[in-house]
Specification:
Radius of gyration: 25 Å
Largest sheet: 7 strands, mixed
Protein name: Glycine betaine ABC transport system, glycine betaine-binding protein OpuAC
CATH topology of the largest domain: D-Maltodextrin-Binding Protein, domain 2
GO molecular function, one term: carnitine transmembrane transporter activity
Structural class: alpha/beta
Helix content: 40-55%
Main location: membrane
CATH superfamily of the largest domain: Periplasmic binding protein-like II
CATH architecture of the largest domain: 3-Layer(aba) Sandwich
Order of helices and strands: HEHEHEHEEHEHEHEEHHHHH
Number of helices: 12
Distance between the termini: 49 Å
Organism: Caldisalinibacter kiritimatiensis
Oligomer: single chain
Number of strands: 9
Domain ABC-type glycine betaine transport system substrate-binding: 33-278
Mean pLDDT: 89
Shape: globular
Length: 290
């Protein structure tokens, strides 16, 4: 009888211990809130946001919701606390007005990419280095600048550059894919070409390129890309905020991620997960320290 009582007691202890452990695991899972990320349909923003989604879900056990919207809507929504973070804030120029308007309701978690800019881009082997030199070598470029969609901001800036510098060039409208295909064809044949370009972009990871100097600052200043968060995120989800503070990519890293997404038929989140697995040492360096 005493042996039977010991067995029953032992069984109860096992059940109780299992219940406690299971309960502990469940509570840990329940404590992981859903992270709400907003993004603009810009290539670098799509790439970085999908990469953070992969890290938060696969490495840290969070659920992630992603919402695409215009910058104005995103800044307003983060200031209202509807979204947790936005990883594609260009500062100090492009999104300056939004930051000024909502600065009391946002938290800047620092930059994740340094040296973002727009301008005229040529292969590194092209001999000139400044927009001011373009007219002297017009024949080498057939008097053409290869552009993208006519409504893009960089096209407006290039029309202004043609006027400000008195360039005797035609700006050819097209698309992003046509521009990169033209660039590839010219580089393959060691020919001169000028394209409207911006960084970050995968073409900088694939080819040796340079921006032409812009002494009149028609294309504006070099910017950094910041992660903006709602107030309270650091208290509500401190390890998420720490991840965002640690998250940084250089030209080569972001360019390779964007290139993989551009070249793939798979969804960006699938590609971002593959990139994360191929760059695990870098990704792990962003994770919060326990």
């Amino acid at each position: 009888m005493r042996r039977f009582t010991k067995i029953i007691t032992l069984m109860l202890l096992v059940v109780l211990l299992g219940t406690v452990l299971f309960s502990g695991c469940s509570n840990q899972t329940e404590e992981k809130d859903t992270v709400k990320l907003a993004y603009v349909n810009w290539a670098e923003g799509v790439a970085m946001t999908n990469l953070m989604k992969a890290v938060l879900e696969e490495k840290m056990g969070y659920e992630v919701e992603m919402t695409m919207a215009d910058p104005g809507v995103i800044f307003t929504s983060i200031a209202n606390g509807d979204y947790d973070a936005f990883l594609d804030a260009w500062l100090p120029v492009t999104h300056e007005s939004y930051l000024e308007k909502y600065k009391d309701d946002l938290v800047d978690l620092g930059y994740n990419f340094e040296g973002a800019r727009i301008g005229l881009v040529v292969p590194e082997y092209v001999e000139i280095n400044s927009i001011e030199e373009l007219n002297s070598v017009k024949d080498k470029f057939n008097g053409e600048i290869i552009g993208i969609d006519s409504g893009a901001g960089i096209m407006n800036a290039t029309n202004k550059a043609i006027e400000e510098y008195g360039l005797d060039y035609d700006l050819l409208a097209g698309s992003g894919p046509v521009m990169t295909a033209s660039l590839k064809d010219a580089i393959d044949n060691n020919e001169n070409i000028i394209v409207t370009g911006w960084k970050p972009h995968w073409k900088f990871a694939r080819y040796d390129l340079k921006f032409l100097d812009d002494p009149k600052k028609v294309y504006g200043e070099v910017e950094n890309i910041h992660t903006m968060a709602r107030k309270g995120l650091e208290e509500d989800m401190p390890e998420v905020a720490e991840l965002f503070r640690n998250f940084k990519l250089n030209d080569q890293q972001l360019g390779s991620l964007m290139g993989m997404i551009a070249d793939s038929d798979e969804e960006p989140d699938v590609v971002a997960k593959k990139w994360m697995e191929e760059n695990e040492e870098l990704v792990n360096s962003w994770l919060p320290q326990e």
